Amino acid sequence: MAPEIIGTLESALYAKDLKAAAQFWTGIIGLEQIVHVPGRHVFFPLRRAGAAGL
User: Fold this and answer.
1) Beta strand 35-37 with 41-45: parallel, antiparallel or unpaired?
2) pLDDT range class, residue 15, cuts 50, 70, 90
3) Which range of residues forms the domain containing residue 48?
4) Which residue of 20, 23, 28, 42 is surrounded by the most CB atoms within 10 Å?
């Protein structure tokens, strides 16, 4: 029997232009950045226990 799926902890999206992608997620979608390493990655909280990374 397969285990019950209870949710997603993290998701990752890849973008050629990290700065433009981060501006989209903050300016258009309204997410707040919680971690930003220039040229490497940006993290946004989605819920109490999860996050999305670019």
Assistant:
1) antiparallel
2) very high
3) 10-53
4) 42
When divided into structural domains, the chain yields a total of: 1
Q: Residue 28's pLDDT band (boundaries 50, 70, 90)?
A: very high
Can you point out the beta strands (E) in the chain?
10-12, 35-37, 41-45, 51-53
Structure tokens that stand for 24 in this block: 């989209």
CA separation, residue 3 to residues 6, 7, 10, 15 (Å): 9, 12, 18, 32
Q: 26 CB contacts (<8 Å, ≥6 apart)?
A: 32, 33, 44
2 domain residue, yes or no: no
* Cβ partners under 8 Å of residue 40, min gap 6: 18
